[in-house]
Amino acid sequence: MWHAVGSVMVPALVDSRLDAGDLDGACTLAEAMVSAAPLCVPPLHTLTKLTRAFGKARCMPGVYACLEAQLAGGLEADAESLQVLVDALVRSARFVKGGVSMDTLPREPIPEVAFIGRSNVGKSSLVNMVLGRRAIAYTSKTPGKTQQYNYFILNEPAAGQRAAVGTFHVVDMPGLGYAKVPGAERRKWLTFLGQYAAARPQLRLLVHLVDGQVGPMEVDLAIMRMVKEAHARAGSAAGASVASNADESGIAAEVIEAVRAVEASGATGGGAGCPWRYAIVLTKADKGGLMAVKRSRIAVERALEEIGWLEPADIVMTSSKAKTGRHEMWRLLRPVILS
Predict the structure, then answer these.
(1) How far apart are the first and last CA of the chain?
(2) Torsion sign across C-alpha atoms 171, 137, 211, 77
(3) Helix 60-72, helix 23-36: angle, nearest 10
């Protein structure tokens, strides 16, 4: 009985704190719902109502507390709750600019999440699905056609105001279509990626998309190697050298050449510690059966082990078509949104 009373009383208290403008108090009570789960969780419609209220108040920690309470309580989302969540976390989205080199990227100190993957892996579709927008990220069926880092600002502050919690950049990076892109262009892309990951202070999360039906391909392994080298360099002191295997060949050799170019440029995180996380998202989980995706996950874990990746790396399964994995993606984005 106490659990039933608590599942009604706590949300009512959260609501009253919100009405009084006490966001800190409302967040504390909302986090109590997470701690009490799964024994004492409000029904989905109540959490949806609170999510909408926190979103209206532009209180992102409260929105995330409602999401965590829902997941901890084992409540399955419906179409309304998903839309309310997206509306609470994404009030606006606008294309800012396309960057082709480090000095052409936005200079504002706004946290950013970058999405990278081989061409036609479903990168732009995933970005659009997660953010609840039909065409925020550009799509193309021609590998290598988009050759710039497309920047979008989410929850842009009003003119003259500073960016608040919840304002962040989404970076839609070029799809790496090796088969149709000249070698010189590939090396240019890899060098830019290495510079970006090693020396971009605004970067908080790098999301690498891998086709869940085929697993990591040669281009994915190349991205992993570059990310590893750049990650090590971002957390090292200026001028530190990152070791590479000189016996590699093919695309791996291009990665090593690009890493050396990054080192020659002096790109570094300044030794203050690497601020960004690396996550791998398996796309197209709705096709070919779950076993194929599970095999791909195992292959990704093995690949990370083989390249010597020692940091935590989240692996998430998604489907833009079935709209699965959206909650998991929003959990990945939490450090970006709340930073």
Answers:
(1) 39
(2) positive
(3) 10
217-232 residues labelled b (16+ CB within 10 A) or e (exposed): bebbbbbbbbbbbbbb
Quick: pLDDT tens for 26-73. 999 999 888 888 778 899 999 999 999 999 999 999 999 999 999 999
Structure tokens at 331: 């959990």
pLDDT at 162: 76
272 near 201, Cβ under 8 Å? no
Q: Cα separations (Å) of 316 from 57, 140, 276?
A: 30, 24, 17
What CATH number does domain 2-89 carry, 2.60.40, 1.25.40, 1.20.1440, 1.10.3470? 1.25.40
pLDDT at 247 over 50: no
Q: Please tell me the pTM assigned to this model.
A: 0.85
Q: Give the distance, in angstroms, between the CA of residue 216 and the centroid of all CA atoms in the same chain.
A: 19
Q: How many CB atoms lie within 10 A of CB 257?
A: 15
Domain limits of the chain?
2-89, 93-338
Residue 326, CA distances (Å) to 32, 141, 221, 276 in order:
24, 24, 25, 21
**What is the secondary structure of 72-132 as a DSSP string?**
HTTPPP-HHHHHHHHHHH-S-EEEEEEESSGGGS--S---EEEEEESTTSSHHHHHHHHHT
Fold (CATH) for 93-338: Rossmann fold (3.40.50)
Give, in degrees to the nearest 5, the angle at Cα 274 between 176 and 234: 60
**Mean pLDDT computed over every residue of the chain:** 82
Provide the 3-class DSSP secondary structure of residue 174. Answer: coil
